[in-house]
């Protein structure tokens, strides 16, 4: 496989080989050489892939910390085994690594974990991806592993950074749909910024391109768009759905699927509360400083809009970025912005206008003064209701037994695969919790139908999957 090269621009940069003839000069200028590593160099840099340098394990293989260039460059090396053709799981892993190289060699962004280079060693049947090293764990750790509890400001910043990265991917000259947005695919860099990682399931091209139309649905249960049932259903709005789930996770601090909650699926749990305007009930009570009511309301309504069952009605990522930008300004306490915001809060007309701009058609009913801890209701066309509650009761999230949380794994569809644990995985300790793997056979091009609960997927054939859209 030949991999074209990109430079590092502030926006996403894409090199599409199909466009090379048209803009070869421009392309030439934009290309920057990816490094081709040899195996020994990476073995040395990871101390022989030692346990001390082990960072984690994903569905494609293991990840190690590497010290390169005499200590000047820290990197993460993702190692996958090239296996026999009849090994479904490993084939799928290799396909995902190939896909990740293919996409990351064309796309770069400051809020993404970018590719530095790669190594293919046929003798050892190994492929290695060398990406930027992120020393501060995953967003999943920051949200769900006490004592790390992110502040509201930090959560909003991370949500905005990821929204910007996803928007850049969607709006690139040759768009990219990530298909696996989730908190464990967001890594935190040395400066505390959130970076989007793991492009193993991503697809590059226009949704009408043949290769996109023929790729079976894939993603992670709990984050997967329920309207993405067949290859033809794929649009950028599937990423918007996953981002909405991520936003709910950021607001609430609960997992996308958590059996200690009823309903266990975060969308089904949060939506009724948001519709009733009970924003405090979805807030992560572990954060000491309460969020401004405007912050939590805007975040919750945006999340609710992102997870709407009708894909077309979801906002696009530019709108999400715009909303999160304004939320960030409010949460940071920018005095000018706060003054403007308070003024609009005090005039129902302005609230109407601003919410209408967000395509939620609201009717504002003001009930009493703020001092009296009263509630104002804002009802949208689709039943999403906002209540501006001056005194917000905080109901703590119930105590969670960690082993009741389903750690979501990517549903691979880059190659042939099957349901069940990886038989080649001798070490399951890295995944302490239950792992769900539902894998879709490419040949059968099975479609995934999510029930109304949106949390549990089952595989259906084309014939049986009735695609009811609202
Ligand atoms: N660039 C990196 N820098 C530092 N640590 C990393 C990096 N990439 C991955 N890791 C660590 O390795 C772990 C495994 O990552 P990987 O992307 O392979 O799988 P995953 O996203 O956790 O799972 P899945 O592949 O099923 O989606 C991560 O949880 C993280 O702890």
Automatic annotation (TrEMBL):
Signal peptide interval: none
UniProt keyword list: ATP-binding, Kinase, Nucleotide-binding, Serine/threonine-protein kinase, Transferase
UniProt keyword annotation of rRNA processing present: no
GO molecular function list: ATP binding; protein serine/threonine kinase activity
Domain of life: Eukaryota
Keyword ATP-binding: yes
Residue numbers binding ATP: 78
UniProt domain Protein kinase: residue ranges: 49-337
Family assignment from sequence similarity: Belongs to the protein kinase superfamily.
Name of this chain's protein: Protein kinase domain-containing protein
Organism: Thlaspi arvense (Field penny-cress)
């Amino acid at each position: 496989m030949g991999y074209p090269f990109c430079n590092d621009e502030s926006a996403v940069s894409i090199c599409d080989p199909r466009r090379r003839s048209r803009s070869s000069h421009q392309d030439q200028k934009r290309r920057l050489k990816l490094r081709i590593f040899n195996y020994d160099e990476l073995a040395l840099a990871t101390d022989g892939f030692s346990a001390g340098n082990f960072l984690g394990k994903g569905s494609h293989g293991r990840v190690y910390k590497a010290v390169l260039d005499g200590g000047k460059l820290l990197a993460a090396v993702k190692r996958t085994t090239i296996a026999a053709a009849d090994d479904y799981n490993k084939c799928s892993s290799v396909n995902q690594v190939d896909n990740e190289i293919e996409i990351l060699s064309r796309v770069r962004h400051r809020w993404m974990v970018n590719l530095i280079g790669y190594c293919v060693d046929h003798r050892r049947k190994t492929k290695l991806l060398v990406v930027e090293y992120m020393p501060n764990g995953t967003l999943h750790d920051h949200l769900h592993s006490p004592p790390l509890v992110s502040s509201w400001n930090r959560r909003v910043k991370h949500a905005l950074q990821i929204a910007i990265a996803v928007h850049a991917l969607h709006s690139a000259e040759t768009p990219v749909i990530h298909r696996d947005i989730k908190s464990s695919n967001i890594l935190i860099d040395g400066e505390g910024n959130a970076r989007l990682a793991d492009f193993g399931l991503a697809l590059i091209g226009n949704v009408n391109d043949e290769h996109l139309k023929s790729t079976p649905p894939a993603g992670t249960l709990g984050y997967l768009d329920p309207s993405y049932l067949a290859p033809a259903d794929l649009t950028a709005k599937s990423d918007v759905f996953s981002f909405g789930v991520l936003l709910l996770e950021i607001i609430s601090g609960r997992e996308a699927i958590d059996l200690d909650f009823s309903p266990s699926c975060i969308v089904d749990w949060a939506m009724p509360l948001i519709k009733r305007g009970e924003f405090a009930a979805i807030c992560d009570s572990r954060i000491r400083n309460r969020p401004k009511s405007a912050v939590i309301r805007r975040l919750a309504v945006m999340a609710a809009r992102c997870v709407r069952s009708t894909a077309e009605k979801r906002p696009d990522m530019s709108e999400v970025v715009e909303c999160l930008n304004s939320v960030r300004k409010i949460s940071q306490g920018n005095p000018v912005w706060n003054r403007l915001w308070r003024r609009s809060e005090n005039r129902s007309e302005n609230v109407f206008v601003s919410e209408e701009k967000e395509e939620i058609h609201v009717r504002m009913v003001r009930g009493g003064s703020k001092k009296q801890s009263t509630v104002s209701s804002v009802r949208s066309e689709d039943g999403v209701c906002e209540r501006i509650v001056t005194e917000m009761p905080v109901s703590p999230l119930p105590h969670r037994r960690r082993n009741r949380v389903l750690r979501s794994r990517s549903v691979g569809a880059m190659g042939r695969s099957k349901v069940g644990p990886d038989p080649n995985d001798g070490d399951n300790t890295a995944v302490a919790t239950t792992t769900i793997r539902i894998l879709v056979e490419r040949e059968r091009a099975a479609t995934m139908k999510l029930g109304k609960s949106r949390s549990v997927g089952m595989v259906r054939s084309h014939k049986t999957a009735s695609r009811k859209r609202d």
